[in-house]
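Dear colleague,

Thank you for sharing your sequence with our group. We've completed the structure prediction you requested, and as agreed, I am returning the results in plain text so they can be pasted directly into your records. Please verify that the sequence below matches your submission; if there's any discrepancy, let me know and we will rerun it promptly.
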Amino acid sequence: MTDTPFDSALSERYLVYALSTITARSLPDLRDGLKPVHRRLLWAMRAMRLDPSQGYKKSARVVGDVIGKFHPHGDVAVYDAMVRLAQDFSLRYPLVDGQGNFGNIDGDNAAAYRYTEARLTRVAVDLMQGLDEGTVDFKPTYNGEDEEPEIMPGLFPNLLANGASGIAVGMATNIPPHNAAEVIGAALVLIENPRAALSELLEHVKGPDFPTGGIVVDSAETIAHAYETGRGGFRVRARFSTGKLDDGSWEDSGIEKQPGGTWQLVISEIPYGVAKGKLIEQIAQLIADKKLPILEDVRDESAEDLRIVIEPKSRNVDPDILKESLYRLTDLENRFALNLNVLDATRTPKVMGLHQLLTEWLTHQIVVLVRRAQHRIAKIDDRLELVAGYIIAFLNLDRIIEIIRTEDEPKPVMIAEFILTDRQAEAILNMRLRSLRKLEEMELKREQADLTAEREELVKLVESPARQKTRLRKDLEKLRAVYGLETLLGARRTTIAEAAPARDIPLDAMIEKEPVTVILSKRGWIRAQRGHVAADQWAEFKFKEGDELLFAAHAQTTDKLLIAASDGRFFTVGADKLPGGRGFGEPLRLMVDIDPEARIVAMIPASAEGRLLLASSSGHGFIAQMAEVVAETRKGRNVVNLKPKAALAIVRPILASDDSVAVVGENRKLVVFPLAEVPVMARGQGVMLQRYRDGGLSDAVSFAFADGLSWAMGGDTGRTRTETDLAPWRVARGAAGRMPPTGFPRNNRFG
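Please find the predicted structure tokens below.
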């Protein structure tokens, strides 16, 4: 023994382990798309004669043979691999025909292998076609008692057709299923032109074709880049559809009308690899957590066909918004990562693009074709040798019989006299008497001629690459007809349709839009009454004893309410979050953190493009965009900076037509100036609107100068007065002003 440093020994042994894991467990071979466990499963089932035409046999027998003869691993791992080969929702083209419970799309596990039965499918037979024809090499099994094929020689493009996934030491693979007919179509293009561009291949290979259907919504550029590099991914969405139309196409809205004008959404296909049961639980959890308020219920009505029913909160919900929300919040849209990491013909891991992958697969198929021809030539040569001996025997039948009857050792005599080989002489001696008919002689000569002609053609095939391509093309065309797009098994299931990325849905879209009247009392209790109550009925609102109306506003449940406090802070409350109008409501201070010393000076429904005129008691003010004063937290947003002893006094919406500002002070002085002189700010003190010697600002309002300035007249008449001649009060911003027109309210308020 020699001493080896520990780190060197460790790294060497780890490398051996890693390589064995990669090549013997985790990565598929590009030539047949199988991992060793799958290959051994199929080989064992073939040895058990579990052909599609034969009866089923217990899965336990298959698993026992595999782990006993070929794959010395745990029975659970082997059976799990077998189950996957049988699941029509896992494999696009199942290789095992299972009978019994092999799991389902809900995510339920298969029954134990003692309860299930299995046999091979037609696809598996096509994949193993040629095993007895010298097409591939065989290697000893782990214990040397048997042999197993190193690779499956069949023409079926299993790697891309069924895909593969696995995690090796330091690397992984993830290959989606594809349509076999499309893959064969792309291969035919490469046979004709080995240098064909990727775009020509993608005219046939549109994208993945998942067994569970769905819709791939990536752009053509994204798909092309993934196939070019061998790395990328595909966004797969569920299919909303009520079923197939008369022409065989899917209805694409998924909207199913119900009595009374209501509707519901129907999901007919889900993304690949998503368990239906877990998906429904996921959607149900959204409802329970109230993360999707526009969703009322989810039901599984699946029988033979998948059918998941989504029920909206009301018929007014936008179906597209509901779909987009479900795509964003659930696995109704997921991403299938592409990693074309496979073992090439030299058992070397490599990430390949579609072009290289198909090229190397075709190279392998040419090798298989030539080896099959060579094997057949060897068989023909063997048979021609025997046929030539038989013909010699028929031509010299009497002498042959005489030798057999008279000689103790007839074989050496026959060999010497007729120049026969040992095999020929042995075959003649073993001939039956019934074979000595004249008819048999004619058959032998015909067979010799046919075999000689066949041999000549095969020799030409072996020696001519052009003939090999022609033969391979014909074989692929025959296979494509079997798995054609017009067949039941070969019809494409996944739709390739580019769609915009799942967009962020605004929060108000999650709320059912209804008109409400928001009521805020002087003591700070707030509620929302359904419908828009007319202003002349606001006096009928009920309040706690000693309380009364402070503000009321018409809004929608989707609106945000801006609430301004006298300390210059703005708070935001969702109209949908307010208590109903049957009681007295709830204290506003439970919803937002308003300073107990501050007064509420305004409550206004926010709009995206709206503007506010803000003014403090000190006479300073500015214009603020509503969108910029919306607060995201309970603490609100500090918008107006105030001088000592000053307070926020005025918060008024500015109409689009307004072009002037009127300000009146406690000293009963009025000024009018252009709105353009007031700056737009997100936060600050603002500019001087009106200057005071004593007192402060009483009221301010924006208006259209051409329409005149209006104010409410005294009493309960509800009438207003409009002054159109405002020239005496029109001055520059910041002036002291002069007394208002006769009849201006004594409270110094515009209304």
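Summary note from our side: The longest helix spans residues 354-395.

Kind regards,
the structure core
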